[in-house]
Amino acid sequence: MTAWIVIALAGLGSYLFRISMVLLVERVRLPDQVERASAFVAPAAFMALATSGLAASAAGADITQAIPLVAAVAVAIITVRHTGRPYLAVVVGMPTLWLLTWAVGAS
Amino acid sequence: METAYASATQPSRDPMVPLFAAGARAMVPWLAGVVPFGLVIGVSVARADIPAAAGWLTGPAIYSGSAQIATIEMLDDGAAPAVIVATALIINLRLVLYSGAIAACWRGTPRWWQITASYLLVDPSFVVGMDGYQRHNRRDLGHRYYLGGAIVLWFAWLTALAVGVTLGAQLPSELRLELVIPLYLVGEVVGRLDDRATRRAAGTASVVAVLALTAPLQLGILLAIITGLGAALTVREVPR
Predict the structure, then answer these.
(1) pLDDT tens string B199-214
(2) Residue B209: which of A8, A36, A48 has the nearest Cβ?
(3) Cβ of B17 under 8 Å from any chain A Cβ?
């Protein structure tokens, strides 16, 4: 019974977090700084999630796993900067990772 | 009569339908990383000393992978209920930021929309949704785009959890699919580093995320986001 209650409470709290600002924005006007800051939530959150994911993966890796990872990220960044197409980061990055992982492992 | 027959048999020309599909398609890259993640959580539920149905319920109830993992692991370890709930909520604090960022797009919408759309708000749906609102001038078009991506994600997530719980399947770890999402996010941000404040937000968040990698309760991500926002606000606005 405890597990069900814990999950229900965690779910309820999470939902309140999700809807909190959506409801508040109807009743209170957010300070200008908060409004301005909200424009940067996406890039800050995206990079925080991306970097922590990549760093966590690299942290537990030896050099043969780290090199392909770093190279894949570099190739992805260069490709997106040159083409302006964000999805190419995955389309180019993952095959680069697989190819270099195979090459480093075979050498 | 002919006209009525023709209109009844022809496919819908509702311009909203392609937008729903476009949002769903935009979610596809996320699924490559999210589905294995859901499978892993499902497997952890199958191995934990909690009812399988309760473990699966973390999906529709909490609907956030990191907080779900923490809840399942701590329930399995017999942690105090209050500590488990507090931990899950701390991990999910970032949802308040997402809520604040997307609130402007949902201002003035019907209450049923706010209740439903908020329930579906999580990292991937936030990313895809914000992208949709930035691409389309009309908010109703952005709503369809958001909903398309969010619903696909919701079904995929709950299905992956169910499959993981039921089969306890092993992931092909050689593919390293967990890196699809970080690469996707890098691509999204790199393509938008147009102004100094955005670059500062992204750069600072990256550095702090690495430095706070071992922070407890996954507070590192929240800390990185807040620090990134603070750094962006230090850039003086250029008068237009």
Answers:
(1) 999 999 999 999 988 8
(2) A48
(3) no
